[in-house]
Amino acid sequence: MNNIITISSLSKTYATGFIALKNINLEVHQGEIFALLGPNGAGKTTLIGIICGTINPSAGHVVIDGFDHITHYREARSRVGLVPQEISTDMFETVWNTVSFSRGLFGKPANPALIEKILKDLSLWDKKDTRIMRLSGGMKRRVMIAKALSHEPQVLFLDEPTAGVDVSLRRDMWELVRQLQQTGVTIILTTHYIEEAEEMADRIGIITKGELQLVDTTASLMKKLGKKQLILQLTTPLNELPGSLAIEGLTLSKMKDEITYTYDSESKGPTITEVLNLVANANIHFKDLRTTESSLEDIFVDLVDGEVQ
């Protein structure tokens, strides 16, 4: 699989002595949707800034489509589009003019047909002559995406693309991102909405305290780190579990009225059927059972809290 971005031994220490990034190594595949997750202050913004050429690294290299981001700055930067979290554009300008102007900033010749296509793809065509200040928040965010696409980048960074928008518009934005991916654009997004990454991303990277903790597909993350639970609601509370139920992952609740068996796909312990048989053999009766499975949010919280190694 071809890599559109290769990051090698990337570090950043600010003049204050604050270490924002520590030896980041990452490969982003061409045409994928890659989600970068991390708490505030984890280093996401610094990493994006370095890739986009707005922040200088202290060490390491970034190669974008074969071009080093320092020695071939213009070539590398021209391949990247950035949609910042904050809406920042000339509010008194029209949609058409502001998107066309953004294309010119990269030295690209005028291309009305392309601008028309971008605006139509983003459902902005009927707003092309409208001043930005008169648009809704969702439409303004679409204009920011149009500006980022105006110079035909191969990589599009979306920094919190659905922050502050309602659920309906968020779904529309997700669909828009998928459409962009289908045109061959590589999407890298940061988000605080865990379900957004779980829904959209081909792969996920989790960064905390300036270090990239792991990178994997969503499915693989769920398989390796996701926990499943079998919860039995007892008919009669127990004082303690009998010796026959001294199994790793099996616990009695504080209220003594539930037995929980926690396991994952890599567990070598008993199966659910075997656990239920052990419970029956111990003459323990339950009135209800349910199962749960870790979400990506659970995995993320565990990683940030240091519970997952």
TrEMBL record:
<keyword id="KW-0067">ATP-binding</keyword>
<dbReference type="GO" id="GO:0005524">
    <property type="term" value="F:ATP binding"/>
</dbReference>
<feature type="domain" description="ABC transporter">
    <location>
        <begin position="5"/>
        <end position="234"/>
    </location>
</feature>
<dbReference type="InterPro" id="IPR027417">
    <property type="entry name" value="P-loop_NTPase"/>
</dbReference>
<dbReference type="Pfam" id="PF00005">
    <property type="entry name" value="ABC_tran"/>
</dbReference>
<keyword id="KW-0472">Membrane</keyword>
<keyword id="KW-0813">Transport</keyword>
<keyword id="KW-0547">Nucleotide-binding</keyword>
<dbReference type="GO" id="GO:0016887">
    <property type="term" value="F:ATP hydrolysis activity"/>
</dbReference>
<protein>
    <submittedName>
        <fullName>ABC-2 type transport system ATP-binding protein</fullName>
    </submittedName>
</protein>
<keyword id="KW-1003">Cell membrane</keyword>
<dbReference type="InterPro" id="IPR003593">
    <property type="entry name" value="AAA+_ATPase"/>
</dbReference>
<dbReference type="InterPro" id="IPR017871">
    <property type="entry name" value="ABC_transporter-like_CS"/>
</dbReference>
<dbReference type="InterPro" id="IPR003439">
    <property type="entry name" value="ABC_transporter-like_ATP-bd"/>
</dbReference>
<dbReference type="InterPro" id="IPR050763">
    <property type="entry name" value="ABC_transporter_ATP-binding"/>
</dbReference>
